[in-house]
Amino acid sequence: MIAKIIAYGSHRDQALARLRRAMGETTVIIEGGVTNKSFVLDLLDQPEVIDASGGHRLDRPGSAARGAGW
């Protein structure tokens, strides 16, 4: 990994909008560089991501990170 984009906002919709904008404005300038940009942009349009209903590893019972202040 060469770069990571992190977005935040006062609410989920604002953070997602900022992340979409940042991803849309990102360009790879390393010759032969590949990205997962199209995957992330597609993912950001999924209803489960928009409304946070899809869950993730931190939501799973027994997850080591669950009680670690995340």
How many strands?
Answer: 0
Query: What is the rounded Rg?
Result: 15 Å
Structural class estimated from helices and strands? mainly alpha
Unreliable stretches covering 5 or more consecutive residues: 63-70
Oligomer type: single chain
How would a textbook summarize the main sheet?
Answer: none
Helix content: 25-40%
Structural commentary:
The protein is an all-alpha fold and 70 residues long. 37% of the residues lie in helices and 0% in strands. The protein has three helices and no strands. It has helices at residues 12-25, 37-44, 47-50. Helix 1 packs antiparallel against helix 2 (37-44). It is globular and about 35 Å long.
Quickly list its features.
70 residues; mainly alpha; 37% helix; disordered C terminus
Topology:
Blueprint: H1 12-25, H2 37-44, H3 47-50
Helix pairs in contact: 1-2
Concise structural overview:
By secondary structure, the protein is mostly helical. The protein is built from 3 helices and no strands.
